[in-house]
Write a structure and sequence with these properties.
Order of helices and strands: EEHEEEEEEEE
Shape: elongated
Largest sheet: 4 strands, antiparallel
Strand order of the largest sheet: 4-3-10-7
Number of helices: 1
Number of domains: 2
Radius of gyration: 18 Å
Structural class: mainly beta
Helix content: under 10%
Strand content: 35-45%
Amino acid sequence: MSEIKTDKLSGVGTAGVILVTGEGNSTTTNLQQGLAKAWCQYNGQATTPVFFDSFNCSSLTDVGTGTQAPQLTNPFSNNYFAQPSTSHASGVSWCLAVYTGGKTTNQMYFTSVNTSSVAIDANPVEGTAHGDLA
């Protein structure tokens, strides 16, 4: 088995472009574009919501019942980044964290709702963000 150790990778044609051959050897993935640029897991039921763990998130703002806004350490280049998420609430059979507006280049935005689409505080709430950093 071979091992490569390095502190930096650079593409030959363009410094930030590195293609990785995918499964089946028929497609390639741009390594830089394929990475999550931010993620977090937090307790939205706490009096002051708190991160369990995160990457590229500096703080967490409690916007209101069921809604929190993780602030990003390094912003995106625009508001068109993808933000998939999930959440869970004790005693609730189904709960989902959804995007309801408010995200900016330096902030994600999650609202947890139940089956009746009523905002509820959830724990845990988990989210990632994919897109181009500024």
